[in-house]
Give the backbone structure.
Amino acid sequence: MTDLPTLLAVARGDRPADIRLTNGRVVNVLTEEVEETDVVLSGPRIAGVGPGYKAEETVDLAGRYVLPGFIDAHVHIESSLATPPEFARAVVPRGTTTVVSDPHEIANVHGLEGIRYMLAASEGLPLTVFVMASSCVPATQMGTAGAVLGAEELASLDDPRVLGLAELMNYPGAIHGAPEVLEKLAAFRGRVVDGHAPGVSGRELNAYVAAGPRSDHECTTAGEAEEKLRRGLWVFFREATNAKNLLALLPALSAGSRRRIALCTDDRQPADLLDRGGIDQMLRMLIAEGVDPVVAIGLATLNPAEYFGLHDRGAVAPGRRADLVVVPSLEELHVEGVFSGGKLVAARGKAFWPRAAGSPSPPAPSMAVPDDALDFSIPRRAGRVRVIRAIPDQIATDAVHVPPTTAGGEVVADTRRDLLKIAVVERHSGSGRVGLGLVTGIGLRRGAIAGTVAHDHHNIVVVGADDESMRSAVRAVAGLRGGLAAADGGRILASLPLPVGGLMSEAPIREIRASLDGVVEAARTLGSPLHDPFMAMSFLALEVIPALKITDLGLVDVEAFELVDLWVE
Amino acid sequence: MTDLPTLLAVARGDRPADIRLTNGRVVNVLTEEVEETDVVLSGPRIAGVGPGYKAEETVDLAGRYVLPGFIDAHVHIESSLATPPEFARAVVPRGTTTVVSDPHEIANVHGLEGIRYMLAASEGLPLTVFVMASSCVPATQMGTAGAVLGAEELASLDDPRVLGLAELMNYPGAIHGAPEVLEKLAAFRGRVVDGHAPGVSGRELNAYVAAGPRSDHECTTAGEAEEKLRRGLWVFFREATNAKNLLALLPALSAGSRRRIALCTDDRQPADLLDRGGIDQMLRMLIAEGVDPVVAIGLATLNPAEYFGLHDRGAVAPGRRADLVVVPSLEELHVEGVFSGGKLVAARGKAFWPRAAGSPSPPAPSMAVPDDALDFSIPRRAGRVRVIRAIPDQIATDAVHVPPTTAGGEVVADTRRDLLKIAVVERHSGSGRVGLGLVTGIGLRRGAIAGTVAHDHHNIVVVGADDESMRSAVRAVAGLRGGLAAADGGRILASLPLPVGGLMSEAPIREIRASLDGVVEAARTLGSPLHDPFMAMSFLALEVIPALKITDLGLVDVEAFELVDLWVE
């Protein structure tokens, strides 16, 4: 840590810098220019930009570009299935030095204890992890989470890394002025409040914006993004593993609007992070589409810094954190070196910092599933049933109404029609409650997959071709104290333990990824053609994304914002 | 005041709005577009933008443009010579609905009491007056002000309208890490800090930026503005009565930098405000130079709102304050109507709101000048003297070294050479201290002018062709408890009383302007060709603007940042 007098002395040139980066080309997002000049560092900060400085150590960049470290404007670290230290090992070598995280997965399981665990587990990393206080725990009253966080509890988070209120997913509550939503907004008055308003438009959008949220990252069309920008929301372009919106939104990026657009990954699973990257990969996509690289880099640096009021980062400029990314080419944008807080922390994809010896202890598991609760039978009735239709690479679903397949007086899965059973088993309170439904689009031909990653309540969600396989898979994840499993009849084909909240593993992210590959491969042998059927399944339980979802309380018509029966009438 | 549930109901269309502006063209600075749509207001706020709303009252704009109310990013209200209520009557009908003021003139006279007076006197106006805590009271140790404000006193200002720390004029102190400057910066950590760094460049600029200020409004060339933008400062383009920089800075306005540029008037005297305008006049200048009107309007609305974190204004968008400006043409930009907080408060230049019955009492005058102190004689010596050379329409001066004109063993004014005497008489403590020097560029042929407006210490400054006229002028302003006066020998030609701090009058601004015209006219009859010799004189005492200035302690070489003798060696 450099004190200010030392920083000023280095800036003036009265004292040698710690490090001088010379012969570099500085991407200046403040003016959208590239400057051929030097950058000098003093402790964790940039002391000066310009020629004529002396330093203890000089790094010759030989014409490489110096960029500000990338800022991910909105991410749920839990979706990497790794704890913060291992998440950092995946994203920092790719150039991300700051993330604004919403720990709402673990908050839905463990409440404030979960949020405090994420803060503690991300201390001292070369990745700055900011936290937005999870606004929707539980997401709605139509599912049962492991915790309930009210306005007072959220406001009690006084860590300086807590920036504001996280995505306000209860958009009907905001629009209609629900008292519990207004209380949370009042508790965070004057601080940043992120939004989440998929498809909200017109007068309802006016009401949502008037309620207080300042951003949205749920746009799926350029027209939706343009309308939200016009009404005053910042728009975060998202490219998540299961919600790929970046290219569809690109037409909304104009000279007039680009100052109010940032980039976010939201939810990325480990293989995606390791093989494709994060913000760096989004930048490569934008540049490949013809966006000026300097403009694109601004979306991932200065813009989120300004949105969140992070005046100490987001640009290569004096006094700001020396979070820097070195790339040989702006066209390719492959990250070669990464400085965080003035230290070279990664190069050519390798993290240089050691694994911490002792991590903070995660909360005790939240897992209480009475074995006799696992009854997935659905008595036959007359009429059609509501079926959730999963859409590839989207977290939204369709609702379809079809006649069920029945056998022996019961509704059964029918793999010929790609109709599978889906169930959500409440796991936090031991209630034994099970929500039951049908799903198409997951594609299992036999067996079942289950997991404790089930947005956002993170009960146990299971999809299967027969009840026995479903029971086996649920018992397996319960036995692991959380995790993912694939079962065929009574046999467990593969599993991934996720003991931290039923969401994350403390293992190295490459090991997590290998185990995940194992369970996904098992799901493939069971017939699912999806890239990651577990991730697809996990969002089928998220009752704030249209159109039809399922919780432990049953099916949810998200547009009507109410629980609905399996049977159409 | 509308409560949030009501605002949301109006936004949703469930309840009629108070006012609907229809058939207007909305200048959307969020996306740099013009939208043909409606705007509806609920109480003091904008409830919605878009069609289909009902309202109690509909205003047909017949194709006129609706703009966000203008925000002046940096102004010393005291320079209008009017108190806040009368300043508002001048600027609101011109479209300015928000100003960020630095009350450092009255703070230098009356300290915190002066700042609290400005806060109290600006409450409840249709103009929102934000305050930056005056960082440099006194401006330096090289002059004597009426108060000293340390970090602790500044931080004690807990009014929600106090946004941060005002222009950090002691730039050498910031660059060199002077402890009293670092203390003030520490006291305002995390809040906005305005800068003031005329001509600072290169490594010194790096140090100044690293110290913490986030903006600068002292640029005089486009190159200076560009460098400051590159290093991370926001640049406020200034067009003050006595510092006209707007057109010189215009080349620095680029697509890449324009998000970090705002407009400010800094110091405008009453005739300028009444005849030419304020921010509206700067916008007309920019548009006349070919700047896209929508881009120009963004500089005066959204940009300063974002810089200061004023998320409740700066755009025509739901939830923001209904501070709106109506103009028939974007090319002419003559303000026709002004809404403030949802009410039509001015139209066609006329303010509609009544003058307040009772204003808060100003502080008791700070005026203690022993009559026997008024000795302006300068004994003759060998050698050359330093002379302040005033530059028309600039607050910077040059220093010239010339042989003095002498008579009877004394240095005397010499109107043939345009060499006048200048003196600064300490008025706050009764010390009787007088700083003496010579000035060229004011142009009096006889007599003297004096005033208590003498940036920033606001002692009595006097310029004259003979000592007797100087004494008469000083006695006149002391007798007024502050003000301006012109004298010829023992005769007072004209005077303007400014009893509030020696800086402002509570009279209507049109009356102040008439009296000011009177004293300026008197100065003209004494030979000064300047537009406003009193304003020019008032900045000759400002020891933080290069190159040679004068205080009660004597001449100041601003670049060397030290007191210097009248005699060159």
